[in-house]
Structures are given as structure tokens and as C-alpha cells.
Amino acid sequence: MKKALAELIGTFVLVFFGCGSAVFAGDQAGMLPLGIAFAFGLAIVAMAYGIGPVSGCHVNPAVSLGAWIAGRMNTRDLGIYVVAQVIGAILGAAALYVILSGQIGAGPVTGLGQNGWGEGYQGGYGVGAAFLFEVLATFIFLVVILGSTHKLAPTGFAGLAIGLTLTAIHIVGIRITGVSVNPARSLGPALLIGGQALSQLWLFIVAPFIGAALAGLLFRLGILEGKA
Fold first, then answer.
1. Higher confidence at residue 111 or residue 90?
2. I need a surface site. Which of 44, 113, 123, 143 has the fewest CB within 10 A?
3. Which parts pass through the membrane (predicted)?
4. Percent above pLDDT 90 for the chain
């Protein structure tokens, strides 16, 4: 229960601050894309040190899948983590929705920082480019996570390395897909916004899982696993 609650809170914070930076700040004060990138990255850094000692701060079903494939968590915990992460993401998106709905004189809520691709979304990249980016970005993200949390890695720096990597991924990819690398982060906003965000959700589940699985497999096979 402690791990589940930690993952729920951590994923809530990631969605609330990361997606919230896009929703509330938009392009004000240089928020696009650098500010949004740092909002996601700093949220991960904060949660890594806040809930890391409890659950390891996955806050991402793709991270949990990669850790499971790498042999670093059992199947029971994988299921518990994913359920908690999904609930946390939905609650985070719901909190944003409620706050946005309270803006005086505003119309219906149409944006919660949802991911997407195609004409009319960010840079207008096609499905192939979006899919490839999400696979590669998630693969790189998992390599950093699994490497920096290895028993041979310097202690105390994993949270910083992971947060900075997520920041860099957002700097590169916001114009492509808005950056997912996290099925839960994509699911929360898509469920509440519906429409195109929901119809395109499959990509932000499948592609991150593929990238995470590839990274986890390299560690499981010992190709990237350090030796004492």
C-alpha cells in the first residue's frame, strides 16, 4: 500500500505540474518549450527524492515494464504500480480540469496538455515520426533510469540524472508529440478531453512500451548491465 500510494502521488504531481505548465502558462514567460520541459523534469527530480525511498519513483507504466523485464521487480508489484500510476494520472488531469473550469468567463475546457500528432497539432508531424520519436525517447529514458539506479552507479544522483534526461527529451520532442514516454501521463488528459486525443492514445501506450521493453531487455541480457 505504501508503494501504491507513493506511485499514485508521484504520477499525480508529474501530470499536475508538467501538463499544468502547458495549460496555465502556455507561451507566457518563455514557457514553450523550455519552461514546460523543465516543469516535467523538475517534477521528476522532486518526486525521485520525495517518494524514491518508498517506491523507487517509477510514476510511469513504461518504467515499471522496463524494470520488470530487466528483472528488478516482480509481476505483482508491476500490476500494483501500473494501476496506481494510472489512477494518479487521471486524478492529476482531473484536478487541472476542475481548476480550468473555474476560470471566469472561459469556455469549455479543450486542452489538458494532451499528446498528439498530425495536422493542427504542434509541428504537424506524421504518425511515423511520432511513433519513432516515442520509441527512441522512451528507450533512452529507460537506459538512463536503469543505469543510474544500478547498484554500481554513484549513489544520490539518479533523481537528478533522470530529471535532466526527461527535460532534454521534452526540449527535443514537444513539437513532435508533446512528449509522452509515459502511457499514464497520456491517458489522464486524453480520457477527460476525448476526441482526437483519445483516438491517438494507442500510440502513446504502444510506442513507450516498446522502447522500455528494448531497454529492459538489454539490461536483462547483461549487454548494458554493469559487473561488480
1. 90
2. 123
3. 35-57, 78-104, 124-145, 157-181, 201-223
4. 78
Q: What is the pTM of this model?
A: 0.93
Report whether 188 contacts 84 (CB < 8 A).
Answer: no
Q: Which residue has the higher pLDDT, 14 or 107?
A: 14
Q: Which residue has the cell 512500451?
A: 209
Domain ranges of the chain: 2-105+114-220
For range 87-93, the mean pLDDT: 97
Domain 2-105+114-220, classified CATH 1.20.1560.10, yes or no: no
| Alpha carbon separation from 145 to 82, 136, 159 (Å, rounded) | 17, 14, 9
